[in-house]
Amino acid sequence: MLPVRSKSKPFKIIYLVLVLLLLYTPILYTALFSFNESILGGFSGFTLKWYEYVFTDSTIMDAVFVTFSIALLASLFSTVVGTFAAIGFFSMKKGPRMLWGAVNNIPVVNPDIVTGISTMLVFAYVGLGGGYFSLFLAHSAFCIPYVVLSVLPKLQTLNPQYYEAALDLGATPMLAIRRVVLPQIRSGIITGALLAFTMSLDDFAVSYFVTQGSDINTLSTLIYSAAKMGVKPYFNALSVMIFISIFILMLIINKRTDITELY
Predict the structure, then answer these.
(1) Counting Cβ atoms within 10 Å, is residue 202 exposed (0-12), middle (13-18) or buried (19+)?
(2) Contact (CB, 8 A) for 185 and 256
(3) Burial 77-112 (b: 16+ CB within 10 A, else e)
(4) Interior angle at CA 209, CA 205 and CA 210, nearest 5
(5) Helix (H, G, I), strand (E, B), or coil: what is residue 39?
């Protein structure tokens, strides 16, 4: 068996390299040409003017503010709601817990375009315009299931006797949750918050449909709208900045997950 494995190892390496090239060549191309002096065509010289343009254009900076502020507010709100929802799921009996767990997983596996259209139709029915508050509600809604999925595994490792002991000692249920349960699942809560922030930051479909008919733009919807009128030279710089932001957040999430597994 060992010789077979050693012979197949070069093919595995080649396969891995090809997959990585397929995934990351467009990103590397974007990063390289974000420093290109020329608007179109080959690389004609190094420049930072497209990054300067991004930071000096008011429309882009407004979209940056909306994107990051919505991601921050939605992640905070969804973390609170998702954490207590996970605690509620965990306290149920097996049957209802499995049922509500399946309901919670539907938005995760549901195509983004379906979620976006459905949210737009609901908001239109209740008379909620496509403004900043609507965008906040939409992002909070699809981030909550990810927080639940991050917190539930930590709850499953929790010893329920600690919570019961706190109740026996006179603590109220809310005080027992705050002093006993939450500190022990803190790592899952933080991971869920970071994941929610990343999902909100990366979203396009939901933001596009929810903001129809308004002048609110996130970075993704702004790029999509501008691309209809042709390729803009600052697209590369803006895309690189978004990629770096999400990449750093994913590194933090993975690092926290590795530390959690050690303990």
Answers:
(1) middle
(2) no
(3) bbbebbbebbbebbeeeeeeeeeebeebeebeeeeb
(4) 110
(5) coil
- Distance between CA atoms of residues 257 and 165, nearest Å: 29
Q: What is the rounded CA–CA span in Å between residue 122 and residue 119?
A: 5
For the cut 90, the answer to whether the pLDDT of residue 78 exceeds it is yes
CA–CA separation, 241 and 68 (whole Å):
13
- The answer for residues whose C-beta is within 8 angstroms of residue 191's C-beta and 6 or more apart is 150, 253, 256, 257, 260
- Cα–Cα dist 259/225, whole Å: 41
Q: What is the pLDDT confidence band of residue 148, given thresholds at 50, 70 and 90?
A: very high
Tokens representing 81 are 């709601």
What does the pLDDT look like over 190-232, one tens digit per residue? 889 988 998 998 889 999 999 887 888 898 888 888 877 777 7
Q: What is the DSSP string of 163-220?
A: HHHHHHTT--HHHHIIIIIHHHTHHHHHHHHHHHHHHHHH--HHHHHHTTTSS---HH
Cα–Cα distance between 54 and 60 in angstroms, integer?
6
- What would the two tokens of residue 201 be? 């930051």
* Contact partners, residue 162, CB within 8 Å, separation at least 6: 180, 181, 184
- Six-digit token pair at 253? 């999430």
